[in-house]
Amino acid sequence: MSRHSARPVWLEAVGTFDARVDDLMEPLRGNPRIDTAAKVITGLGDHGLMWAAITLVRARRKGPERARAVKALGIAGVSSSLVNAGLKSVIGRNRPDTTDLKITEGGIPVRPPKTSSFPSGHTLAAFTAATVLSESSDAVGTALLFTSAGLVGLSRIHLRAHHASDVLGGAAIGLTLGAIGRRFV
C-alpha cells in the first residue's frame, strides 16, 4: 500500500477505540430493559425535548430566574443546532453499521438518523444545554443535568446511532459551546 493511500495513524486509533467501545457495549444489547431505556433516553434527546422539559421546570420560578432559564435554552438550542449542522456537512462521517445490531424489537420507536455521524448532535445538544442550564447554587440539579447528558451519549452508542468518538466529540463541543453560551445568560 502506498504512503498516500494508507489511513493516518490517528484515524486508525479512533477506529480501534470505537471498535473496543462497541465490543464493550455488545453484551448489553438485546436486554429488553436496557434497550428500552436507551430508546426512551434517545427519544427524549430528539429535538431537545428533554431540555425543553427541564427549562419548563426551571421557568416555574418568577422573575430573572425564569428569564434566565428560557434564554439559556434558546442559546443552547440555536448554537448547538448551527454548529452540529455545519460540522456534519463538512465532515460527512458514515454511521456505524447496524446490520448485526441486536436490539429488542417493538416498544419505543427510534427515529432513524438521516445526517452524517460526527459529531453526535444529540450529545452535543445535551452537553450544551447541561452547561448553559446548570446553576452553581443547585449542585443536585447540575449533577442531574450532566448525568442526563451522559446517558444521552451512551444511548446513542448503545443503539449504534453513533461511534463512541462521535459522542466524545459531541460532548467536548457541547461543553465548549455551553461555556461560551453561559457568558450570555
Silhouette: globular
Helix content: 55-70%
Largest sheet: none
Number of contiguous helices: 7
What is the mean pLDDT? Answer: 89
Termini gap: 53 Å
- Low-pLDDT stretches: none
Task: Kindly estimate the percentage of residues that lie in beta strands according to DSSP.
Answer: under 5%
Indicate how many domains the architecture comprises. Answer: 1
SS elements, strand count: 0
Radius of gyration using CA atoms only: 18 Å
- Topology order in helix (H) and strand (E) letters: HHHHHHH
Classification by helices and strands:
mainly alpha
Summarize the structure.
The protein is mainly alpha-helical and 185 residues long. The protein contains 7 helices and no strands.
Question: Can you describe what's shown?
Answer:
The chain has 185 residues and is an all-alpha fold. The protein has one domain (32-94, 104-182). The protein has 7 helices and no strands. The longest helix is centred in the middle third of the chain and has 28 residues, at 64-91.
Question: Could you name the key traits of this structure?
Answer:
globular; 185 residues; 7 helices; 0% strand; mainly alpha
Furnish the topology, listing elements before pairings.
Layout: H1 9-25, H2 32-45, H3 49-58, H4 64-91, H5 121-133, H6 139-158, H7 164-182
Helix pairs in contact: 2-6, 3-4, 4-5, 4-7, 5-6, 5-7, 6-7
